Amino acid sequence: MAWITENRRTATVERRSEPYLTEEIKAGLTAKYFPRYPNKRAVLLPALHEIQHAYNWIPVQAMEEIAAFLEMSPAEVLDTATFYEEYWLRPKGQYLLQVCRSLSCEICDSRKLTDHLIKKLKIEEGESTADGRFTLVELECLGACGTAPVMLINDVLHENLTVETVDELIAKLPASANDYHDPAVTWDEGDGH
Amino acid sequence: MAFNEPVLTKRIDADPGKRKLHFYDDYVATGGYKSLRAALDMTAADIIKTVTDSGLRGRGGAGFSAGQKRSFIPREKKGLHYLAVNADESEPGTFKDRYLMDYDPHSLLEGVAITALATQVDVAYIFIRGEFHHEIKVTEQAVKEAYQKGIFGQGGIFGSKHKLECYVHMGAGAYICGEETGLLEALEGKRGWPRNKPPFPAIAGAFGRPTVINNVETLCCVPPIIERGPAWFKTMGTPSSPGPKLFGMSGHVNKPGVYEDELGITLDYAINKLSGGMKGGKHKGTICGGISMGVLGPEQLDIKLDFDDVRFRGGCLGLGTAGMIVMNEHTDMIRALRNCVRFYAHESCGQCTPCREGSAWMKKILDRILAGEGRARDLDMLLELEKSQGIMPGTTICGLADGTAWATRTFVNKYYEEFAAKCPEERPTQMGIKRGIRNVTTPMGSNTR
Amino acid sequence: MPKITVDGKLIDCKERQMVLQACQDAGYKLPSYCYHPGLSIPASCRICLVEVEGIPKLVPSCQTPVRDGMVVHSRSPKAVASQKQVMEYLLINHPLDCPVCDQAGECSLQDYSYEYGRSQSRFEEDKAKKPKKDVGDNIYLYSDRCIMCTRCVRFTREVSGTSELYVDGRGYREEIDIFPGKPCNNKLAGNVVDLCPVGALLDKDFLFKQRVWLLKQTPSISPVDSGGENIFLEYNNGVVYRIKPRYNAEVNGWWISDDTRYSYKIIQNEKRLKSAFKKEHGSLTKTSTREAFDFAVAQLKSLAAQSSGSLYAMLSPMMACEEAFLLGSAIRAIDPEAVLILGPVPSAEEDDIFRHSLTGQQTFVIKAEKVPNAEGIRRVISQLGGPSANYNELISGNNPLLKNLKGGWIVGGYLSNWIKGALPAALATGFRVVQDILPTTLSESADVVLPGAAWAEKDGCWENYAGKIQPFAAAIVPPEGITREGDLYLALLGRTGVYNAQAIRKEMGEPFAAVSLPTEHVQAPAMEFAEL
Q: Rounded to two decimals, what is the model's pTM?
């Protein structure tokens, strides 16, 4: 309804009483990232990543809190957050299936994977399943063209995929995404400095 | 000129099954950090001279002299200097930096440390694209080790007076952050809108301070150059494009993957010798260096893959990242071009009018052609629009739009007949209305709400 | 000083100036959208690309510094082709709704379209559809008309420092927006509407009120505070429709406050006094200005005859200096010992200071003193000499001069009710002639009420806080029944002829004599249409 004026002026934001940017997250950001950059503003990308990591998406309220924390205007946080595709400003499923659609993958039939997943999960590209388990998106080049077609499931890259291996992968996903890790990371991921 | 041994990939086994991630101990055991120790005994000017003498050209796409880039950093230091490592590898067809970070992260860190010595850098940021989750973890671990081993940190590089901090900065999904000033904006927490130049980053880069920005592969070339000298480096490659190069082979080849060889090998060699020949049919075209460089046609297998031949004889923008997407005879070139243009329409940062509007327009035209509604003048339109975009004609701030332009230019011209078949001359129908033209009877803008 | 040649014309430039700005200063227009001299230079719209001899590429003139001897071509085939192409790009998704667009007539898109555009679009795909948004108490954003020049966003970051506006998304999908529920309501917000080169940002107050080509401009000064912001009154058929900023490097730069922008509303205030009254049998009765005036003069004269020093004139800081001078002189002609009182000078607690959101540099100040001419009235009172006082003394009653006052001429003219609380004792008694534009408890209890003219209806000058005396001109005539103050005071002085601010300033001597209206000013939209 393009002729209707969107009321942004008095639009209300869904809120909860406890903050998203908890004291713990703040302390973590302060300790790890503040020393890295000459100003607070530069911590915005890490802060958004941190929130997304904690809540699986970035609620509007959280961006307001980040703005206050980094001493900038909430609109500037949105300015940055909406520019980058990796930030989810709406909730997404527990498992984010990202199928690469760029040229190498396309000529290696990545579209078949997407079409298969659309049928299998009964959702369109860009949508989430009703149970909140999966979200399916296509995205531009994942930088793994030599093993096309590829798909990211959360943090883990899967290469040389076929419809069959995709089915297998999905069947093997643990019940909780918290138990799903990159099998190649065998070292302790603590922060060293 | 000959390529006798792997240089950048000397720690990476050719057999994918035997490849192994080299952390600090393995790295040092295989000769790692020798160059850094050697560099500590050199003056900054000497390091720069050595790199300049080697003729090393940037491996990130533009092919600018790496030594010269370093020499732009002010000698007289008035505040912090930064180094930004460009690991925002997002150009379709390119996956070489991922490969280096996956298996040999310390060679990058050694290159970082040597470059920092040469340009008096205080802080290095390794900007890795957000989708490279694994590579971020690997690099962070390597950085952590380097801190523990006294390379980074306030103790000074191996106890010397040169102090260097090094951090991994995670991108968040925007191709434009691979453009060096877009990267700097992202580093500063802003949207990755490329900056106007001048001032160049070497004078006012990250946080307004002098900044060197280098690609991962470029930095990985630095330790071997320091170790074995510029003369050795120049035994590989061509006089104007010396050195080894990682070639990313993907698409319709039997053995896709990253291969190291010298600059100046032919496309034929790359396809048939390196990556096991064509798969599924005859060669039709190869994107030669990431999609922004354009496509080499079926008859161009003799083109030498270096920074000049691809450009002057190949009719493409350049070698770019040497990420080859090989396409066989069954590939629909219109679909392939649509994929490229869609990429640019999707990734355009939206700052400059020609790129923002032009790429989206061209995508819509290609969508329509693919939907069977093409007509002859669409091709003229595409070729006209393509000319108005890019840093080469000067109509945009950065080079993203050149990608749209060169992809379109080379695809349409080299496969004109294929395109023309989908874009027939308009012919009157019974109604007297020309085929495929939807708004011909209504004036401009009537299809707005 | 470097000299450059642009399209064959020799142009004198300042050091380090950009080509576009040098051309603008020399009166040679190059097309531009995103460039604004008061903001940072993104060089992103690309309409201003020109050819420079010796550089193979086109360069953006807005961010190419001049070099002595530089030869620039803005009308060469290559440059014009680029300008045309950019125009085409900007128009492909721009709706053709000029007939209902407020910006039509002063729209850069229209102007350049006329010069560089095509009569027919070659864009046959579907246009992108973007919503209309309510983004501020006074501002609408019609996103589909937006060309993403980002002037508005830069303004909120670099001038108002409030950063309410931002760019949402990227590429062809991007739009200007606000954080939900955090509207663009800063005190300078209206400037983003002026900045918008197209009809994307619209002033709710002006929306659909008037076609801009019917408007005429008169240079004026802001009446809302002592800053003395330079403005244009834009009016048609005797009605002021809007106020636009007038560039003055020393005072307000390119900007004005929203208080200034909407101050014209006082002119159209429904409650405005439009006829004279005089007290008869204890109540105010409507009468003609002439009769009320004669009555007032007779009364004042008889009071003065009884004892010297019994009259006063309360000079309002809303009055023009010329008017204050005439009234002061007139009251002294009746009673040489009459006291001149400076009226109330309302003030907010402190100045509103605006800063660049990143650098912290001060960019704009809204003065705390909420009247335009306190300085000027002080200067006039001191030039006239003799007994004087101010409003605070009138309230406190501390000044012995004020003990014997029997009657006076009180001028208001404030933009809102200026009598706060009960009437001060000194104003509650005696014979009082009140001249004001809005009714107050004072005018209700006065003996004679004379309706005043608003600043847009008369000529004069005001002195701002920094001592800068700035003239303003009448844009419209006062409503029927109102005689301009200047003419009344001339009559009070017994002089003939009509009030002429420039002539009065000559009489007043320096520094007023040197003040004159700017002879040249930026004209309203270039095209002239006959009024229908």
A: 0.93
